[in-house]
């Protein structure tokens, strides 16, 4: 009974964490783009005249979107048209289950993992669920029964499937090094040290794999350098026939994918909740010193470190989105098939050679 | 593949430029939040309804009609502005003035701002310097089109 309650609380907390960050990423995106273009950005949303640098903007956006007309075209396939945004939203939001937020807490003789679902195939689960998100795109493009949205959906499917190969292959090198596909043991493994002072993070073990994963993951989020599926104004995308909250769900899926990709980058390549030289007793400095900390302080530092890393990668992805122009379609395919996949194969071979030596 | 690798250098340079903009602007934003006044601002934005940019002295804004010393309009109803107006938005009806020096005055003088394109030809055409566009009023939007038809009383005010 208590176990079930704990799981329920964990599910709710993880979803709230994900949705809050997603909600505020919309604000961060507007503000960050403004700052790097020498503007101020959205700062006018106010409650009773109080406007805290526009922090209420996401609520204003949400209210606007809820009250918009939810228009379903008469020529569309009604059921599929309705279900498509929920499909893509569901498959992205479910991946948060396998992400470890921190080490296990000990409360009253009970040890609670700060992770909703610590399954043995955690990494495969996340990648599988992210690939299933394609169904939302294809169904949205097809069920709208509009030639242009169909083309957008097909472009999206082609892009996502191409980049999924590079995404998967870039992780093979990591999987060879890490002892397990279990997310918690992957993070625990990264707590060790190389040469006694460099943390054994995936980034230091697999720098090439990190770069390939970063680019493939950017393509998976279908945002601007790779936004061929959407193509807001120039090439019509897969959710042209959507309006109101369903359109909002597609946008939210995009932002959620940013968060998920950031958590994945953090967990796989930057040590998850690990802080360099922090063990469960406290800091063990490489220069023969230590700073003992109580259990709760260690947990708080770890969770804060995880959040900081995730925020950094969210920031980085938004920076990329506001820096680069869109790829042409052939350039996109060239990058995926001719550069990232061969590089990831080279990475796998190199990792195998180094490991066998 | 080699060619594509070349792009990566440019990609990294591009993101360095945007990161520099972000860091520099954030630095000045944070200084402003702390309360340190700097000459340089984090953003070039003018927060419009509260802050307003100073209009140039030759900016063409809403029209006005100049008055004589006795309070009557300077206009002598010569119809030059009506003739020159490319949008045909000025309507003037002349009436006889008892003063033989002036001879005519406008009994009605209507500018339809809906049609006006703010070219300023009427100002240049006027021999009496009766019409000017230097009020500095640029927020003239109305909910009703009829409110944008300016007659002599509104133009003289």
Sheet with most strands of chain A: 2 strands, antiparallel
Radius of gyration of chain A: 21 Å
What order do the helices and strands of chain B follow? HEHEEHEEH
SSE topology string of chain A: HHHEEHHHEEHHHEEHH
As a whole number of angstroms, the C-alpha radius of gyration of chain B is 26 Å
What is the terminal-to-terminal distance of chain B? Answer: 73 Å
Beta-strand content of chain B: 5-15%
Structural class of chain A: mainly alpha
> Helix/strand-derived class of chain B?
alpha+beta
Number of strands of chain A: 6
User: How widely separated are the two ends of chain A?
Assistant: 51 Å
- Average pLDDT taken over every residue of chain A: 88
How many strand segments of chain B? 5
Helix content of chain A: 55-70%
Tell me the major beta sheet of chain B. Answer: 3 strands, antiparallel
* Helix run count of chain B: 4
From the spread of the alpha carbons, the general shape of chain B counts as: elongated
The best one-word shape of chain A is: globular
Layout of secondary structure:
The complex is a heterodimer of chains A (357) and B (157).
Chain A: H1 2-36, H2 57-67, H3 78-93, E1 102-107, E2 110-114, H4 122-143, H5 147-177, H6 183-189, E3 193-194, E4 198-199, H7 202-205, H8 207-220, H9 244-269, E5 282-285, E6 289-292, H10 295-321, H11 329-356
Antiparallel strand pairs in A: 1-2, 3-4, 5-6
Chain B: H1 2-34, E1 64-65, H2 80-84, E2 90-96, E3 104-112, H3 121-125, E4 131-132, E5 149-150, H4 152-156
Antiparallel strand pairs in B: 1-4, 2-3, 3-5
